[in-house]
């Protein structure tokens, strides 16, 4: 069975946070998971590579990005949207 977008994103975030995937909750923020700005950038690169997508993200101004990083759930939703758009 193919991994879902949700499972793959959680695995990437967990790897960056040095946590088990089961410790990454949908309501978690990157900050509460201990992921700093470098970890965020590395996570974005890993997501892009894993899904063969381009994330519209400005690491210097994340609040001005269309890619919502406010929680794990919002990151998953954004990635799902990009994956769907690519298939479109």
Automatic annotation (TrEMBL):
InterPro entries cross-referenced by the UniProt entry: ACP-like_sf (IPR036736), PP-bd_ACP (IPR009081), Ppantetheine_attach_site (IPR006162)
Keyword Phosphoprotein: yes
PROSITE patterns per the UniProt record, alphabetical: CARRIER (PS50075), PHOSPHOPANTETHEINE (PS00012)
Domain Carrier span(s) in chain numbering: 3-83
Alphabetically ordered keywords of this record: Phosphopantetheine, Phosphoprotein
A UniProt-annotated Pfam family: PP-binding
Name of the protein in question: Acyl carrier protein
Organism: Allgaiera indica
């Amino acid at each position: 069975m193919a991994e879902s977008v949700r499972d793959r994103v959680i695995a990437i975030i967990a790897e960056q946070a040095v946590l088990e995937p089961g410790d990454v909750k949908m309501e978690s923020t990157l900050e509460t998971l201990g992921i700093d700005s470098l970890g965020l950038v590395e996570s974005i690169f890993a997501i892009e590579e894993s899904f063969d997508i381009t994330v519209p993200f400005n690491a210097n101004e994340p609040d001005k990005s269309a890619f919502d990083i406010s929680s794990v759930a919002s990151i998953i939703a954004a990635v799902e949207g990009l994956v769907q758009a690519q298939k479109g």
